Amino acid sequence: MRDDLHARAEALVERETAAFVAAHPVSEALAAIARQNYPGGVPMHWMLDWETPVPLSIVSASGATVEDADGLSYADFCLGDSGALFGHSPPAVARAIADQAKRGLTAMLPGPDTALVGQQLARLFGLPFWQTTATASDANRAVIRWARAITGRRKLLVFDGCYHGQVDETFATLEDGRVVPSRGLIGPIPSASDDTLLVPFNDLADVEAALAGNDVALLLTEPALTNTGMVLPQPGFLEGLLRVARAKGTLVAFDETHTISTGRGGHTGSLRLSPDFFVLGKPIAGGLPAAVYGFSAAIEAAMRRVQAARPDGYSGIGTTLSGNLLTMAAMRACLTEVMTDISYLHMTSLAAALADGLDAAIATRALPWCVIRLGARVELVFRETPPSNGAEAREALDPLMERALHLYLLNRGVIVTPFHNMMLVSPATSGLDVERLVTLMGEAFDILTGRAGGMP
C-alpha cells in the first residue's frame, strides 16, 4: 500500500506544483526581486520549508485568514507555527500596540504594564517570579545558565526529538545509543554531545539512569514533544520526572511554547504540576517577538545568592530590548483580553471536531494513519498508532506525502503548518473552516488511495 500511496503522491505533487505556479504570478515576481538580496527570496531561511515552487507573499493576516499578493485568501491552520495561535492581529493587541507606539517603544526601563503582566503570569501559571526575553530560545538559554549557576553542575538532560529553539545543547539525537548532533545543523555544535544527556521520551527508567551521576543541572522538556511529530506524555510520566529529578537535586523546566495549546494554564496547569521553571514564547504577546520564563520562590532566592556572590560585570543573561514598553503592552492585552477561558473553549472544541473528522476520513479509507490532539493542536501522523517517543515519531515522517497534502490544500485555500501535518485552531477559526479542511483532506485521501483519479 505504501508504494501505491507514494506513486500517487508523486503524481499529485507534480500536478499541484504546476497549478500553484499558474495561480501565483505576483508572488513569483516578488520572490525574483527578493532573491537579489535574500537567499531564496526570504528574510529567514525556514520560510523555504513550505516547499512551494515560490514563497507565498502575504499582504494581510487577520483572525484566521491570510491573503497573498495574488489576491487569494486562505483559511489559516498554521497560524505562524503558534506565533499567532490566538489569531492574526487580535483587536485588543492591535489597539494596545497602536496606543503604546504613540507613547514610546523602548527605554530599557519598566512601565506600568510590567506589574500587571507579572500579576497575570503568576495567576495563570502558578509561579511567583518572572523575567521577559525576546524569544523562547533566549528564555531557555537563560534558564539553563541560571540552573548551572544555582546547582554548580554543567550537564543538561533533554529528550530525543526535543525542540527548544536555538539552544545549542538541545540539538542532539540518539543514534545507536550515542548522543550525536542533530542532522541538518549549520555549523559544529560540540556542546550537543559534551554537555547533553539524551534519553527517550516516556521512559522514566532511562531518566533515573541519566540522573544517577548527580551531575545534571537541569532537565529541560516540553510537556509533550511537538517538533519531531507530536508525542504525548503517558499518564504519570511528567509527575515521575519531577519526583526523580528532585531526588537527585536536578532542576526541571517545562517549555510550554507549543503546548500552551492545551489550555489557559498550559499543560502544566492542566495537570497542576510544579516545575522549577516555566518557559513560554511565540503567542504570549499576540504575535510580537516576546517570551517569558517563570520560576519558584526557592529559585528566586537562589538567584539572589548567585547575584550577591558574583563579581561586577555583564551576566550573560538578557538583551537590551527584552521587556520593552511595546512588548509589555501587547503582552498585557494578550494575557487579559485574548487568552481567555472562552477563547480556549472555542479553540479546543473545534480542534476536537477537526480531529474527529480526520479520524473518520482515515477510517473510511482504511489508511494506516492516526490523529493526535493536544488541546487546540491537531496532527495527522503516518502510522497506525500514536508514537511514544521521538524515534517512533521520526520513523513516521513522510516528506513526500506531507508535500502532496500541503500543496493540495494550499491550492484550494487552506494552509497547514509546513512542518509535519500540524494544524492549529484559533479563537477566530470557524466551524466552516474546520469542515472545509476535513472535506479537502478527504478528497486528497481519495486521490492518494486511487478512489479518485483526477484533480477536483
What does this protein structure show overall?
This protein has 15 helices and 16 strands. The chain is of the alpha/beta class and 456 residues long. The chain folds into 2 domains: 2-86 and 341-448, Aspartate Aminotransferase, domain 1; 91-338, Aspartate Aminotransferase, domain 2 (3-Layer(aba) Sandwich), CATH 3.40.640.10. Strand 10 (251-255), helix 9 (266-271) and strand 11 form a beta-alpha-beta unit. The longest helix is centred in the C-terminal third of the chain and has 24 residues, at 341-364. Its cofactor is pyridoxal 5'-phosphate.
Show the helix and strand layout.
Elements: H1 2-23, H2 25-34, E1 58-62, E2 65-68, E3 73-76, H3 91-101, H4 112-125, E4 129-133, H5 136-151, E5 155-159, E6 172-175, E7 178-181, H6 191-194, E8 196-199, H7 204-211, E9 216-221, H8 237-247, E10 251-255, H9 266-271, E11 277-280, E12 291-295, H10 297-309, H11 325-338, H12 341-364, E13 370-374, E14 377-381, H13 390-396, H14 399-410, E15 414-415, E16 422-424, H15 431-448
Parallel strand pairs: 3-15, 5-8, 5-9, 9-10, 10-11
Antiparallel strand pairs: 1-2, 2-3, 4-12, 6-7, 11-12, 13-14, 14-16
Helix pairs in contact: 1-14, 3-11, 4-11, 7-8, 12-15, 14-15
Cofactor: pyridoxal 5'-phosphate
Keywords: Isomerase, Pyridoxal phosphate
InterPro entries: Aminotrans_3, PyrdxlP-dep_Trfase, PyrdxlP-dep_Trfase_major, PyrdxlP-dep_Trfase_small
User: What is the first-to-last residue Cα distance?
Assistant: 23 Å
Numbering strands along the chain, what is their spatial order in the largest sheet?
Answer: 4-12-11-10-9-5-8
Radius of gyration: 22 Å
Low-confidence stretches: none
CATH homologous superfamily caption of the largest domain: Type I PLP-dependent aspartate aminotransferase-like (Major domain)
* Helix/strand/pairing category: alpha/beta
- Could you say how many structural domains there are in total? 2
Outline: globular
**In CATH terms, what is the fold-level topology of the largest domain?**
Aspartate Aminotransferase, domain 2
The number of helical runs is: 15
Please give the largest β-sheet: 7 strands, mixed
Overall number of strands? 16
Architecture (CATH level 2) name of the largest domain: 3-Layer(aba) Sandwich
Q: Beta-strand percentage?
A: 15-25%
- What's the rounded overall pLDDT mean? 94
